Amino acid sequence: MGRICKYQYTHFIYPFVVEEKKYDKFLERIVSDQKNWNVKLHDANADYDVYSFFLPYIKKFLFQPLFWKKEDKKNFKKYGLNKKMSLVKKMPCITFDYNLKNIKLGNVNTNGEEISFDISSIRLIVFEPGICFIDFKTEIEVYEKYINLDNVLDFNYIFKEITPRGDTKIQFNKIRANRIDDIKSIASFIRKITEGYETEDIDRIYYDRMFTYSYVCLDKDEWNKPEDFKNLENDFYKLQYVQEGKSESLFNTECERLLKNRYSRWQYSMFGFSRESGVVMVSEVEKYNITKLPHDFEKVYIYMVLLGLYQRISLINFSQELLKSSQQRVKNMQHKLTKFVHFTWFSQITNSEHGTDLWSKWQEAFGLNELFEEVHKEYQEYYDEIVAERQNGINTVLMIVYIVSAVFAGLAVFAEQIQFEGTWMEPFLYISLIIAILSYPAYLVYKLFRRVKKVR
User: Fold this and answer.
1) Which terminal residue of the chain, N or C, has fewer Cβ atoms less than 10 Å from its own Cβ?
2) What is residue 455's predicted lDDT score, i.e. its pLDDT?
3) How does pLDDT run across 197-233, given as a tens digit for each residue?
4) C-beta contacts of 374-380 below 8 A and 24+ residues apart
5) Boundaries of every domain in the chain
6) What is the pLDDT of residue 437?
7) 252-301 residue pLDDT tens
8) In whole angstroms, what separates CA 10 from the centre of its chain?
9) Straight-line distance from the first to the last Cα atom of the chain, in angstroms, rounded to the nearest whole number
């Protein structure tokens, strides 16, 4: 038998990108489906610990209804579709809660062993440009007062693949949540939400599996002394990198990268970070691990993951757009990138030291700072190339004007030898002479202006 867990839950997060031109229609479809989806009107009194954790501008970005008046929240529920849409479209981040009244238990078959589980919440989190996340919270049913850690590993390993783009080797019919409005499987549930709206551009599809966000509390006998973690280390890495319980992988515990991707502020707890998952493994020996931490990990820290994923997907999309952009789209791209930097590129999100450490770990795991610099470099190089092409065109035109003017200047000199006074040639030759004198200085002034503008 594997190691014993006292409590666990896993959030499976499916990211997808809505086509920009279909974003309003997608929102309208979700807002209008009041039978299944409700806009979450965040209430500071209900979850004070959650909202007080973040800096004010982060709260305004993630939880805009917090700043609505009580009367406005009441009225929102009474508004018609058009009025609701006019408010929702202005929100940079919208959370929709799914109606769970018909959801019961599901089951997953792993290696012939059936694991029962419950889906206790489904959310849809939508960020303004159309970057979206479907979040399933699952809990394995407890039998005989404990859960086998190998079952948790197997469950996470299989469930993350249950997507419309998942591994075709996985038999989707082995895992399902019953009676979700007649939807037979998780994959078809996702497809019902995204079909017709999700981008089909393969370069903008970030992830073909679900991101795994898992909390596991071990029995005190499994981790009773700080040094016991050495014996748990390999299982921790299996959890962190979403491997099967039967996997025979032996991780190199001295690997610098592995050590860099984990964090422990207190004894009997270890956080793990990767681009595929976020996990925490704790022991019930420490009371905080079974009282406050499960709440904070799920209700507070998960928003760091969503912010990190949102920023990473945005930057990857910017990079892909740059590869395909034409000169005509450069200004639009510049506007998008500037808006992203000013309003959604957050380096500081909380005053909590622990929270700051976690956010730094997520920035590192997602490679956000490196990706940000890379996109800026790509944009600057592309912009310089476009400017250079335009400059070459202007230089060519100015050179032609200068040559033509020089020719007419020669004619003006020639005119001194021949009497054109009083004829149509006289003003024409004078104008040509003026153009010849001014064209090259004008070219030099233009070059100086472009250089100054670029520096700014």
Assistant:
1) C
2) 46
3) 998 775 556 667 899 999 999 999 999 999 999 999 9
4) 374/315, 374/319, 375/315, 375/318, 375/319, 375/322, 375/337, 378/319, 378/322, 379/318, 379/322, 379/333, 379/334, 379/337
5) 4-366, 385-455
6) 64
7) 988 999 999 999 999 999 999 999 999 999 999 999 999 999 999 999 99
8) 20
9) 66
Answer whether residue 7 shows pLDDT above 90: yes
Q: What are phi and psi of 137, to 5 degrees?
A: -100, 125
Which residue, chain included where needed, has tokens 């622990």? Answer: 354
- When pLDDT is averaged across residues 323-330 and rounded to a whole number, the result is 60
What is Dmax (Cα atoms) for the chain?
A: 117
